[in-house]
Amino acid sequence: MCVRIYLSGLLGFLFMLTAEAGVGNSSAMPFCSETEQCLMFDLICESDEYEVRHYDSVKWVSTTERSIFMEMAAMKAFKRLYKYIDGGNEKGKKIEMTAPVLIKMVDKKFWQKSEYTMSFLLPAEDQENPPTPTDSNVKFVNKADFHSFKTFKTYLDLCSRISVFGFRSKKDFFVLQLDSINAKYSKGFHFGAGYNSPMTMFKRHNEVWFVAEGEPVCPDEWE
After folding, report:
1. Are 8 and 109 in contact (CB under 8 A)?
2. Which residue positions does the secretion signal occupy (predicted)?
3. Mean pLDDT over residues 167-184, rounded?
4. 3-class secondary structure for the chain?
């Protein structure tokens, strides 16, 4: 059964305390435990299979790589973005790591090259005026507010080919679930959201996101 969730006064108060809309203290997110700040969201509804969330507009720092293999593109993109937050910017400023790390994946055939765009969430203090990257391949992106369909956690190690195959299987099954209830969502791409350091081996928390089109509807139950 799908349960409608309304934010309590306390949770609403916590959201009001965030320095910038959408970026807040990770203590409000049980699964966001490795960084001090995390991407906040409103939980609209949930079922046994998925959640519907609303995210406010926030600023990210992003880079894009082309490759046949996601893990190859992800490693290069991660190193480039990490260099930026480690001082590779015009101010030489070290920027706090946040969560999640997003990677946008375009649907493709296995043997085709594709673009993979990885993004780091900028912390609250850098949302308004972040230091300019020294690498021209690193850009700022303002993501508009959106609703998402999100599956529950699935293991993902971007450096592991076996893990990536498992992630794709989870994504494909989720597509079948969404289509079975005629959910309206943007086709042709999806996001992987990771909440752990590459060094974390166990109890990783990763998610698959699809961007909802229009006002998402929570079904009373799955067929």
Report:
1. no
2. 1-21
3. 80
4. CCEECCCCHHHHHHHHCCCECCEEEHHHCCCCCCCCEEECCEEEEECCCEEEEEECCEEEEEEEEEECCHHHHHHHHHHHHHHHHECCECCCCECCCCECEEEEEECCCCCCCEEEEEEEECCHHHCCCCCCECCCCCEEEEECCEEEEEECCCCCCCCCHHHHHHHHHHHHHHHHHHHHCCCCECCCEEEEEECCCCCCCCCCCEEEEEEECCCCCCCCCCC
pLDDT score, position 153 = 52
Q: Is pLDDT larger for residue 3 or for residue 101? A: 101
Judge whether 11 and 17 are in contact, CB under 8 Å: no
Q: What is the pLDDT of residue 159?
A: 43
Residues paired with 190 in a beta bridge:
105
